[in-house]
Design brief:
This protein is α+β, with helices and mostly antiparallel strands. It contains 17 helices and 18 strands. The strands form four sheets. Strands 1-5-6-13-12-11-7-10 form an eight-stranded mixed sheet.
């Protein structure tokens, strides 16, 4: 009887998790740097909170209080307490503020970059690990802090190279919808399952459209896979009022903020809470007008609801629209935020007003990659030193060290291949120049510097050293003492 073969473990990632490498990582890091720099210019300070929180503490901050630990990855500690990977960055901030409240400057203004984890069904464009860059002001109920979030959102996009009219910050107030729902007999209670079902349904408007949301507000919806989602069971009259309100968003985005708010005030709810929410938006809008952040940057849109249950007032959604770009047109949301005045209260026991924004960098990266010119993405390595003689490894290493000491990002080829393969390697590393010191260069105490941008196409057909030397237009030979200065000049031309 033949012995059982040992099963080979397949190399594969878990669903919903991605690796990032090379050019993508380079672009991502530059993107994060620009976002963080924008936050810093606004006076926010950086904070790093733990990536793991106590499950019972984290649960109090999760969006759905009827499912306090749904959607998180959890493990049991050796003392019997459950720990969870953070669901978002806001929950850790709220815990941090509650723990350190007396020692913090108030308002406390922080930003943070970090990975968050959702134990949800993975699918195309839907990940279970993604990167967020947040900014929050805790301890201020001044509408100026809400206006600032909208302005900072706008500045972030323009600072990373997204042009005006290619993005839109959509502004709403959570209390508008709550007041409207109250009028229909739905109590806006975050502990009420029916209310949460309604809010979850409405939050899917961008993805499912009016028809899909209508079904979810009613008996329920069956998706393409055949899975059925139970609906909120509302009456037709209730559904019609909600849908009419949500569709007002398309109309509002085409109006000035003042006219959009006047229309909402005239057409819908007469309650005091609705009027107060409109007044809050008027005040924010006035500040934005005074600071020249017009409707082409920040527009009123009552269809924005934000799914997280902890929002208590003004809310914001940041969309990429690209009306003239067929590859990116209506790209959709890459961030959002809003006011959450009761979040810290759950641990602190007293009301601590707060507002903040969160940018989904993993999704934003896709758009930025499409917009960025190829040459702008490929400057990770400036020089590659070719290893021309395997018996003189230390010599070539010293050349690389010298270039690094001059601030030149330098890679030394570590393989055993011929010149053609080494040049292909340098090209694949997106290097600006290749450094060649062969027998002739060594005898003359010189170095040949090959401009890989100029010689990129020619290098594909190179088969030997002699053929390479005919490519005079893309190379120079200089004394070894002038090597670093010559490379710096070439690199500067491309920057």
């Amino acid at each position: 009887m033949a012995s059982e073969k040992k099963k080979k473990i397949k190399a594969e990632r878990p669903r919903g998790f991605e690796d990032i490498s090379g050019e993508d990582l380079f672009i991502l890091e530059n993107l994060i740097s620009k976002i963080e720099k924008t936050y810093e210019f606004y006076g926010f300070e950086k904070l790093e909170t733990s990536s793991i929180e106590l499950a019972d503490v984290l649960g109090s901050y999760l969006p759905d209080q009827d499912r306090p630990n749904e959607g998180v990855f959890s493990i049991e500690d050796d003392d019997g307490r459950w720990l969870s990977l953070r669901y978002d960055l806001t929950s850790g901030l709220a815990r941090y503020v509650a723990e350190n409240y007396d020692n913090l400057s108030k308002p406390y203004r922080r930003f943070q970059t970090g990975w968050v984890f959702r134990n949800e069904k993975a699918g195309p464009g839907r990940f279970r690990q993604f990167l967020q860059v947040d900014a929050d002001t805790v301890g201020s109920e001044n509408p100026l802090s809400d206006a600032e979030m909208c302005m900072m959102f706008s500045d972030v996009f323009e600072n990373i190279g997204i042009q005006r009219n290619d993005y839109l910050i959509r502004l709403n107030n959570r209390n508008l919808l709550d007041a409207l729902l109250s009028q229909t007999g739905i109590k806006p209670d975050k502990n009420d399952i029916n209310y949460l079902t309604v809010m979850r349904s409405i939050d899917k408007l961008d993805r499912l459209g009016v028809k899909g949301v209508t079904e979810l507000l009613g008996k329920g919806r069956k998706d393409k896979s055949g899975d059925f989602t139970e609906g909120a069971g509302l009456e037709n009259k209730q559904i019609d009022l909600i849908i009419n309100f949500l569709q007002q968003g398309n109309k509002s985005k085409k109006l000035s903020r003042k006219l959009a708010l006047e229309e909402l005030d005239k057409e819908f709810c007469e309650s005091e809470n609705f009027k107060n929410a409109i007044d809050e938006l008027y005040e924010i809008s006035t500040i934005l007008d005074d600071l020249d952040y017009k409707e082409d940057r920040v527009a009123i849109d009552p269809s924005v609801v934000r799914g997280l249950g902890y929002y208590t007032g003004p809310i914001y959604e940041a969309d990429l629209i690209f009306p003239e770009d067929k590859n990116l047109k209506n790209f959709g949301s890459v961030g959002g935020g809003g006011r959450y005045d009761n979040l810290v209260k759950r641990l602190k026991g007293v009301k601590v007003p707060a507002t903040g924004i969160s940018i989904g960098v993993s999704r934003l990266l896709t758009a930025v990659k499409t917009l960025t010119e190829e040459s702008d993405n490929k400057n990770q390595v400036e020089a590659v030193v070719l290893l021309m003689d395997q018996n003189k490894k230390s010599f070539y290493f010293k050349i690389a060290l010298e270039l690094r000491s001059k601030g030149i990002v330098t890679d030394l080829y570590m393989g055993t291949s011929n010149m053609k393969a080494q040049l292909k390697y340098a090209d694949k590393r997106n290097a600006r120049v290749a450094i060649i010191i062969g027998e002739d260069e060594e005898a003359n105490n010189s170095v040949t510097i090959k401009d890989l941008y100029k010689g990129k196409e020619a290098s594909k057909d190179i088969s030997d050293n002699e053929e390479w030397r005919t490519g005079k237009s893309s190379q120079i030979t200089v004394p070894l003492s002038k090597m670093a200065d010559s490379i710096i000049k070439i690199v500067k031309k491309s920057s």
